[in-house]
Design goal:
single chain, about 300 residues, alpha+beta, seven-stranded mixed β-sheet, two-stranded antiparallel sheet
Length: about 300
């Protein structure tokens, strides 16, 4: 059996991007060329690697099982090339998190690990896809919302961030005596960040309390809700974690509403377990735990 380095890289690109056409664009190839290479690889391995559908391509179970070995092989060859070129080879870890967590997680982690002997690649995705990428080895550490446990994946709760209502400092609600009742805020322009079925319940309650026929917009990610609050006069509901610095600086003000449940956004760190020690991964895990301690300190201040 002979599998080329280029075909292994192509396999990883398709699995990561979920699309033959996107993998082709990344490599400057035509889509028929990519399809032909994958077909040849499937014939070489004597097994189907992808299920094609209108929205792209999804790795088969066999492909998911093969991906960790493919990634290790590509990584080893890339490190060998760097050694031959006289460049010190550093371990490389890929981190993935929800789009709403990027400012809270990626910046502080990269700052904390700026001098660490490893290179980090960061990307975003939905929680379930991040968990699948952890299983396949495409991602080494993920930051997700609470989700069902998966065999082979270790999960650790980092922080439970309350969902808070906020407005810009100059908003009329910022000066009202608090706590307020839901009916006192329901008729303002409102745009919660959508965080799940609890957000649907919030919108239902707001509609019942409204005295005006105005839409309620649910947005993603947290940065979009933050922008609506800061720049456009919206009352927004979003995780306190995503706006801790804005609240500390006073540019956003919390609106306390007495007759709403204490909803929370549970941030979980996940990684694939294994028998071999991974020093780079352990550095990331320790840095993330230290970051969670800072979140707790800011919340208590």
């Amino acid at each position: 059996m002979s599998i080329s380095f280029a075909d292994l890289c192509l396999l990883l690109d398709i699995a990561e991007l979920g699309s033959f056409s996107q993998a082709a664009a990344k490599r400057g190839w035509s889509q028929p060329q990519v399809s032909q290479r994958v077909q040849q690889l499937e014939q070489e391995l004597n097994i189907g690697l992808f299920q094609r559908h209108r929205r792209g391509a999804e790795p088969t179970a066999a492909c998911l099982a093969f991906l960790p070995s493919a990634r290790q092989a590509v990584s080893a060859l890339e490190q060998g090339r760097e050694i031959l070129q006289g460049t010190p080879a550093l371990p490389c870890l890929r981190l993935s998190c929800l789009p709403s967590l990027t400012s809270s997680v990626f910046g502080p982690l990269l700052l904390a690990l700026a001098e660490a002997p490893l290179e980090i690649r960061c990307d975003t995705d939905h929680s379930q896809q991040i968990m699948q990428n952890l299983l396949s080895g495409l991602v080494q550490v993920g930051f997700v919302l609470r989700c069902p446990a998966m065999a082979g994946i270790q999960m650790e709760t980092l922080w439970r961030s309350p969902i808070v209502a906020v407005v810009a400092a100059g908003h009329p609600l910022a000066e009202k005596e608090q706590p307020l009742r839901l009916e006192e805020v329901a008729s303002y322009r409102i745009a919660p960040q959508y965080w799940g079925v609890e957000c649907d319940e919030l919108i239902r309650r707001l509609r019942l309390a409204r005295m005006v026929a105005q839409p309620i917009h649910a947005v993603q990610p947290a940065s979009a809700a933050r922008e609506l609050a800061m720049r456009h006069g919206f009352l927004c509901f979003l995780p306190e974690l995503s706006i801790q610095s804005d609240l500390a600086e006073g540019v956003l003000r919390r609106v306390r509403i007495a007759d709403l449940p204490a909803w929370q956004w549970e941030v979980t760190m996940a990684w694939r377990t294994g028998k071999r020690r991974d020093a780079g991964k352990e550095l990331v895990l320790r840095a993330a735990r230290a970051l969670a301690e800072r979140w707790a300190s800011m919340a208590a201040a």
